[in-house]
Amino acid sequence: MIRISDKLQLIGSSFFSQGLRIATTLVMARLLSPDDYGAYMLVLALPALVGAMGDFGIPTTLVQLKNESEEAIVDTAFVLGTLLYIVYGCLTIAGGIYLSMTYDDPRLIVVAIISASSNLLTAWYNIQLAVLNRRMDFRAESKQNLWFSISTAGAGVALAFAGLGVYALALQLLVGQLIANFAVLRLSPLRWPRQFSMPLAKTYFGLGGKVSLALYVSNVQGSIANLIVNHMGGQVALGAWGRTTQVQAMFGQNLLSSFERVLYPLLCRAVDDPDRRRDLFVRSLLLLMLPSAFACVWLIAGREAMVRLVLGPQWTMVPPLLLIAALAIPANAFGSMGYRMAYAMGRTDLMLRAGFIDLILFFPMLGIVWSYGVPGIAAAWVFGRFLTTTLVLAGLWREINVPTRYLFGQMLRLAFCAVSAGLAMAWGAAWLESALPGMNLLLRFITMSVAGFILYIALVLLIQRDLIRSAMQLSRTRAAPPEAMTGSTN
Fold this sequence. Notes:
mainly alpha, 17 helices
């Protein structure tokens, strides 16, 4: 009987969850209007601009901490997370009241209350998942992926079919999160926090404070971009931009999150072993780039057909924006490893520095691209992703002692494989459309996608077989138990 490793189970369940999330998003995009999405994004934009600084990296820090009992670590995280999200919830509700009065839209108050409740439940859930990740209980995490994705997908589609409009978007997360929170209680139970530790709280804020400030800067930049898009084209344009970034995130950040949950605890345990740390960083970065490179060219080559097939005719603004936003996917792969390694090494100051530089340069970029409208804002957004990633990696490069020539050689070969597959998909789609004009669009899109994927894998196996071998070795990597963890927590 073939036994699938816990790591592969977690990655596989994450891919399934991501596929289900994509399908749900696409179904809901057909059932809901751009105005509904624009109203939902408007409610989320103002609290981020006013002061939502994220979770201070509490779940991520929880995985890394050592030299204290797990009970104290978890109880302190629970208290801090609860207090933070009560404050954020009040900001969200206040923002909803202000927006409802400004735009004379009472729906925004209800959406704000639902979103605030969902965010608090999500904070607790992330802490519970972090406990499983700290224990490297990847099998339990994979089960939770299934619970959360199925409950969220079912709730979202049912509520959209019921004709609830913008409420379907808000209630989707609340209903799915409630079910997932109950499901995880058996694996990672929450209890009344009896072992709250002030020194641990200072450690959480000391390490995660810089990350949250960086996240705050990113939220401010994103909120400014959303408000500018709303100013340029109204809620319809904002809804289209929201759809664009959501699709990009599905094949960018969200696709990488499944690998991150496996790689991060391994990085934390290897941080004091320079040779192992360097080897793990290089192999992990190449592993993340493998799906990211194909996702980028696939979205670019198939953007028109994808939007027509799954988003519907009302989303005509999305394809040109997706052409630009898809270019950020490779930056997400680099950024993912850079951020996780910086966190594991206690160098979260790099994220803060990169965030501030990006925000400072964002305003001159807006002046340069303003005349291009919403596509110009998208270009500035992509530039920011590459800039922050480059700055974080530059701060880590010498300390990790990355083999630059080897890594960039591998990246160039991988880029060749991806670009070749992308050009083949674009050419194949154009040829099928001219040679077989009566061919069903869905069949043509599937044919193009499958052929492009097969070509990409064939080229990788031909040119970079050692990359596949390295990925398989990484899936079998073992690590010490939590008690043996090493890593800076300063």
